Amino acid sequence: MIRPRIVATIGPASENPEVLSEILSYIAIARMNFSHGSYEEHKNKIDLVRSIHPNTKILIDLQGPKIRVGKFPDGPVQYRKGERTHMIYDPTLLDTCDKSHVYVSIPELTRDLNVGDILRFNDGYLGAKVVEKRGDDKLYIEITNNGILSSNKGVNTSTASLSVDPLTAKDLRDIEFAVTQNPDYIAISFVRSADDVRRLREILAGYDCKAKIIVKIERHEAITNLDEIVQETDVVMIARGDLGVEVDITDLPVLQQRIIETSKKHKKECIWATQVLETMIKSPMPTRAEVTDLHTAIISGADYTMLSSESAVGDYVTDTIEFMNDMWKKYSPSV
User: Fold this and answer.
1) Catalytic: 274?
2) pLDDT per residue over 171-195, tens digit each?
3) Is 31 annotated as catalytic?
4) Catalytic residue selected from 31, 153, 192, 201
5) Which fold does the domain 6-65+165-331 belong to in CATH?
6) What is the pTM of this model?
């Protein structure tokens, strides 16, 4: 039997003792996603994992500065290509979005973007470009394809470098709690440079925390600074969700291979993440494309493959993990 190669997110579908007893022998790293849940809930999950399978490593994944639109109280809105709307930073109105006024969660988005910059909403399903800048808190944008926008969807840009700090006030509070749990890994989201990694390492040292750092490569600046980021970190995650929106998606296959090769050059482990077996959230079988993607991850040199919603909220958690493990057994070069 090969050593476990799966990183699995523990959530509502997998956090009970019965399911954990079935899956933990296949899991190398149990991921706690700090974008969701209370400290008490995360502590209970960590304690339960350790009580059932003490050899499973614990990963605390910090949320980072995920940029989102606010709430559309009247429901999703339909945009047509060529329509224009306002993008505004005003935290007092974040819950009052409508078709003509899209409020966003951080001031850096409206402040740092300029005319011509490109935006992607909802994992890239809706695009826009900035056509007018109206001070630091308001942009006028033009929609570039037909699509729907609904509450709390993410926003990305591939053309501007945002000045937002990858360690938010929430992350700093989360770290203060995280170190009390003696995690094996802490992941930092939306890294831009090696300085971001060094800052986290200094913070952890202040708590005398020995957790290894995982950098999530998901911003276009991280690709530019890839070599020095990988040198500075302990483990690398190819976070293909946001990365696939931040860069031209047709470049993603080449970039994920480049990230693996850079990780190998610096002798750092690498995690292949996001939508690996997405269909299995609702289906007992993956698509042919997902099987091919998983095979590519294994033979390309990834050290681990990660499950997110598949293991956190999926209907077929055990089936998904067993399938992924079977693929590793069949195709891992170490077998």
Assistant:
1) yes
2) 999 999 999 999 999 999 999 999 9
3) yes
4) 31
5) TIM Barrel (3.20.20)
6) 0.92
